[in-house]
Write a structure and sequence with these properties.
The complex is a heterodimer of chains A (584) and B (165). Chain A is of the alpha/beta class. Helix content of chain A is 34%, strand content 14%. In chain B, helix 1 (13-26) runs parallel beside helix 3, helix 2 (33-44) packs across helix 3 and helix 3 crosses helix 4. The chains are: A alpha/beta (584), B alpha+beta (165).
Chain lengths: 584, 165
């Protein structure tokens, strides 16, 4: 790599050729503020102008996020001129921003507010702009869009179109009428939006936020007639600590369980147990399709964002989707059948709360064919995100970091390492391989790791020789990548036996319901890898690492379901899919 | 906020074939969205959701991308034009001579808003900035006919509208 020599604030330094001033400054220990720029975005637009810097010889201030370094360049990042320009640009943004900060859910982690403080913005009305009328789109089950908080940075558009391949929103109109909307001002609920929530995690303000369902949970906890239980997905424990100041990638399972118990849940359970159940059913389904000439490749169905993407954009692959419910739904279904029976509780009295790294899970709970205990008894009653759980813990006054480490309740709380890694891209595939390969060969597989399917790359392939056959698998994260892979499969360029898809880049650890990290962190830290490591470490430290070794799983089959793929298992743990029209 | 067409879409199969063929031939052209929308407007006269969907499908782009371009440029129309296109000049000279009132009055008389078309397709109403006849201010045009030195009286406007079928 060719290096160029430059000076930043009179200090000589080097940066790789092609690097931006922003990147060079970061390496030199300086954070240049950004509002529109995100390294992971493919559409860089330089629209917000808060990253401007002074470059010797240049007439105008230059945007550091897009301007490349060159030999002999002299950059100044905090001159009076730079400070004034950044302050003015922030004031201009404020002139179109609804400054309802007191009642704003992003108060505390709003990137705009943080920068206003940093640059000494002392007037909230320095410029007379046009404050947009508050036009909420609260039609969707998973998010609320408030255009009056939008600063038109376009991060959401890039994420939706480029990373997710959906493109449901764009900038429309011009001048003061400019706003982010679906085509023809269509409602998100009627749109091709897949619910992944990636737009929320990149939004610097509260223009896009998850639908807050915590009131429903508080109400249930307040109702003595209800048996309120909670399940937590693998990725929640890998990220929840960030909301309490712990380093990214800290596994806080023990404190999370303690907090949930103190919030008042009657049972604190682990979705990872249901992940083990998913593997039992999915491995069985896979082997059945391989042996009996069923539809291949089998494609995983744990990620509801991905499922809706498939139903909307690639409906010809619906027969390839595994009929298995997601772990969230399997857990809910078992809680209202197996667990209800075992505990002698009417399933109507059980209120099942799920804590997920995901916003699409809020949509999934109301899908058709997701009520195993009967019509009107949803498998899961309410799904909240990691962020909403953090909000509940904050409100309760629990000092999270001081809590003891506690264990899940045993009734539905025992999981293997295979269940833990479900949160990372490649995790479901690895867990499935651990069980499927052993079932095919009848021998214990050592080592248990399938390292080829690990890592944060968007598309990964691997081949395994198993029982005389070559098993070809593919692991995809980010639905835009899924689209690419399906196009290749459709054209016959690629042939796989099994494909794992997670809608969010890097998998559920980077889900749309996870703690929001501001741009300066996202740009220079791989939060996906750090959070995934927390799960792989937990797997490595687990005594049991194969789903079929889970004694609780064995017990559920022995006492209730019979065999994997049995009629009861199909009734309780499997579901169906439908083609969806592209309206907006 | 843009107003969308309130009239039912009445495109013909011939128009659709023509547009889809053009899109198929030019799909790979860099920056194809603008010319595609121009072509679509040339064929249909305006760009309702049905037409924008064809463009989105033909170019394999999200509808939101097409809509974003269609609402950025003033040359694109989301509502159809009538058989008779009224254009009221709101340029400086006409405006100070009261063309704004005339524009408002026509909206009342036709029961449509600026940029819309009457349900029978007879008139569409738009505003423009200067037709180069400031000496006749206030001015309006219907198709190629210029009407100047207007008073904005009901009788006067009714008489003008009555000339058109």
């Amino acid at each position: 790599m060719n290096m160029v020599n430059l000076k930043i604030n009179n200090v000589p330094c080097q940066a790789p050729e092609g690097a931006t001033i922003l990147e060079a400054a970061h390496d030199a220990g300086i954070t240049i503020p950004t509002l529109c720029y995100l390294k992971e975005s493919k559409r860089v637009n330089g629209a917000c102008r808060v990253c401007v810097v002074e470059v010797k010889g240049a007439k105008n201030l230059l945007p550091a996020c897009v301007y490349p370094v060159s030999e002999g360049m002299e950059v100044y990042t905090h001159t009076k001129r730079v400070q004034n320009a950044r302050k003015m640009n922030l004031e201009l943004l404020l002139s179109i921003h609804n400054q309802d900060c007191m009642s704003c859910v992003r108060n505390g982690d709003c990137e705009l507010l943080r920068l206003c403080k940093q640059y000494g913005v002392d007037k909230s009305n320095a410029f007379e702009g046009v404050l947009p009328e508050r036009q909420d789109d609260d039609s969707a089950l998973h998010l609320v869009k408030d255009s009056s908080k939008c600063i038109i940075c376009r991060r959401c558009i890039s994420t939706c179109a480029e990373n997710q391949g959906v493109g449901v929103i764009n900038v429309v109109e011009r001048g003061f009428n400019t706003h982010i909307a679906c085509a023809f001002e269509g409602k998100l609920a009627d749109s091709t939006c897949i619910g992944c929530g990636q737009c929320i995690t990149v939004c610097p303000t509260a223009a896009l936020v998850e639908r807050d369902d915590t009131e429903k949970v508080w109400n249930a906890l307040d109702d003595p007639t209800r048996h309120v239980i909670v399940q937590t997905a693998p990725s929640v424990r890998a990220a929840l600590g960030e909301e309490f100041g712990l380093p990214i990638g800290t596994n806080v399972q023990g404190k999370m369980v303690a907090a949930l118990r103190r919030l008042g849940f009657d049972g604190v359970f682990d979705t990872d147990f249901a992940a083990d159940m998913t593997i039992m059913e999915e491995a069985h389904e896979f082997l059945d399709r391989v042996k009996n000439g069923g539809k291949l490749p089998l494609i995983t169905s744990c990620s509801p964002g991905w499922v809706k993407y498939c139903e909307t954009f690639h409906p010809d692959f619906i027969p390839n989707l595994s009929s298995c419910k997601s772990p969230q739904q399997m857990f809910g279904a078992l809680s209202k059948t197996y667990y209800a029976k075992k505990m002698g509780i009417d399933p109507r009295d059980i209120y099942c709360v799920s804590v997920m790294p995901c916003t699409a899970k809020k949509i999934e709970i109301s899908r058709a064919d997701q009520s195993a205990a009967g019509e009107g008894i949803p498998d899961v009653d309410v799904s909240i995100t990691t962020r909403e759980l953090a909000r509940m813990i904050h409100r309760s006054g629990l000092r999270f970091v001081d809590l003891p480490d506690e264990d899940f309740d045993p009734a539905m709380g025992q999981a293997t390492g295979a269940g833990h890694i479900f949160g990372a891209t490649g995790g479901v595939m690895e867990a499935a391989l651990r069980t499927a390969v052993e079932t095919l060969t009848g021998e214990k597989v050592e080592p248990v790791e399938f390292a080829q399917v690990r890592g944060t790359e968007g598309i990964k392939e691997a081949e395994y020789q198993v029982a005389g056959m070559t098993l070809r698998v593919c692991v995809v994260s980010g639905t835009a990548n899924a689209g690419k892979v399906l196009d290749m499969v459709r054209r016959g360029e690629k042939q796989y036996h099994m494909i794992e898809v997670m809608a969010c880049p890097g998998g559920c650890v980077n889900g749309g319901g996870q703690p929001i990290q501001p741009a300066p962190v996202r740009n220079f830290t791989d939060i996906r890898a750090l959070r995934a490591k927390a799960l792989y470490d937990q797997d490595q430290a687990s005594e049991l690492r194969r789903s079929h070794e889970n004694p609780l799983v064995q017990q559920v089959y022995a006492e209730f379901l019979g065999e994997p793929g049995s009629e009861t298992a199909h009734h309780v743990l499997h579901t169906s899919y439908q083609k969806r029209e592209k309206l907006y | 906020m843009r107003r969308f067409s309130t009239l039912p879409f009445a495109g013909t199969p011939e128009q659709e074939t023509q547009l889809r063929q053009w899109l198929a031939e030019h799909k790979e052209m860099p920056g194809v969205t603008m010319p595609a929308l121009q072509k679509a407007q040339e064929i249909y006269g305006y760009l309702p959701i049905e037409v924008q969907r064809m463009v989105a499908e033909g170019l394999d782009k999200p509808l939101a991308d097409i809509y974003g371009v269609a609402t950025f440029y003033s040359q694109f129309r989301l509502a159809p034009q009538g058989r008779n296109r009224i254009s009221v000049c709101l340029g400086t000279a006409c405006y100070v001579k009261g063309s704004g009132k005339i524009h408002e009055k026509l909206q009342e008389k036709l029961n449509i808003k600026d940029g819309e078309c009457t349900p029978d397709g007879k008139f569409s109403l738009d505003s423009c900035r200067c037709v180069g006849a400031c000496g006749l201010a206030p001015v309006l045009m219907i198709n190629e006919d210029v009407y100047g030195r207007l008073t904005g009286d009901d009788d006067e406007l009714d008489a003008i509208l009555a000339k058109y079928e």
